[in-house]
Design the sequence.
């Protein structure tokens, strides 16, 4: 059975009047059916270009892209892919419901419009004109349009951009319901929290090249450091702990010492804290998700 998405050795070059821009260079990865994959990278890394290729809006200069074993454009025409992209706008004079009904009319067998409005969380603004919808509300309308074909694959480019924290939380709650039904999800995001909470895997681009492809639960485990927290005391001062092997930093806050420690020295340090210092209330934590991911990216970029 074909993967939901297969990208093989893909390159994309744009030619301007006086320059050539290599947007993607030899990118290879796949997305299994039912998988949730986050695409990350700085602005200009090539994320939107890659998603445009997967949606059949442009073609690669080199390499190949397949969606359920088909050319992307064929998969879209067959209703197997629904997309929410940054490009393209909404007609300002139509209401939300009129917009969804208009786009639904282009599909042979669209999902019921009322059902889509409820699922996308725009039922309560169905009669509102697009022109007076906020940026976050317009994002939810675009999400509704992506749901119309009932596609098994959803491709979303920064879907929560412009949403406040309540709308973001509600959006991902709806997405969890959809993916629980077996849909495949490929989405780009700059929000580390929603990547950590939602994605099975993270694919990272930097300057058009793939620099990381890793399971979300592996990211913190692969990080080079850990955070060890312990109650401070006469034999457990920050100054004394800074001198121990593998300790990169030690900071005191409200009677607690936070130690940033090389991962390979954590076991040795824990034994020392418990046996020599008589440390109390000891915890070993991974570094913040984004710091772990950033360390992996930096390491990957240094590796030939």
Sequence:
């Amino acid at each position: 059975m074909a993967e939901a998405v297969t990208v093989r050795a893909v390159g994309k070059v744009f030619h301007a009047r006086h320059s050539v821009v290599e947007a993607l260079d030899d990118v290879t990865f796949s997305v299994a059916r039912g998988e949730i994959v986050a695409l990350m990278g700085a602005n200009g890394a090539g994320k939107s270009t890659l998603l445009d290729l997967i949606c059949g809006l442009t073609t690669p200069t080199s390499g190949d892209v397949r969606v359920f074993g088909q050319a992307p454009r064929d998969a879209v025409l067959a209703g197997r892919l629904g997309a929410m992209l940054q490009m393209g706008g909404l007609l300002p004079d139509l209401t939300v419901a009129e917009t969804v009904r208009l786009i639904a009319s282009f599909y042979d067998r669209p999902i019921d419009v009322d059902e889509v409005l409820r699922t996308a969380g725009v039922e309560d603004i169905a009669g509102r004109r697009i022109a007076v919808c906020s940026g976050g509300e317009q994002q939810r309308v675009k999400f509704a349009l992506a749901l119309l074909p009932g596609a098994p694959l959803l491709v979303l480019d920064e879907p929560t951009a412009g949403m406040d924290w309540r709308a973001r939380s509600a959006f991902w709650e709806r997405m969890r319901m959809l993916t629980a039904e077996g849909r495949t999800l490929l989405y780009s995001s700059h929000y580390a929290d929603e990547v950590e909470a939602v994605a099975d895997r993270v694919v990272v681009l930097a300057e058009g090249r793939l620099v990381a492809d890793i399971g979300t639960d592996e990211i913190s485990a692969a990080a080079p450091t850990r955070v060890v927290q312990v109650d401070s005391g006469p034999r457990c001062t920050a100054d004394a702990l800074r001198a121990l092997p593998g300790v990169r930093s030690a900071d005191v806050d409200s009677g607690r010492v936070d130690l940033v420690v090389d991962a390979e020295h954590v076991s040795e340090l824990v034994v020392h804290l418990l046996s020599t210092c008589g440390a109390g209330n000891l915890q070993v934590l991974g570094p913040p998700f984004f710091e772990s991911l950033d360390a992996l990216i930096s390491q990957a970029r240094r590796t030939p």
Summary: The domain at 225-286 is CATH 3.30.70 (Alpha-Beta Plaits). The longest helix spans residues 165-180. The longest strand covers residues 20-31. The chain has a mean pLDDT of 88.
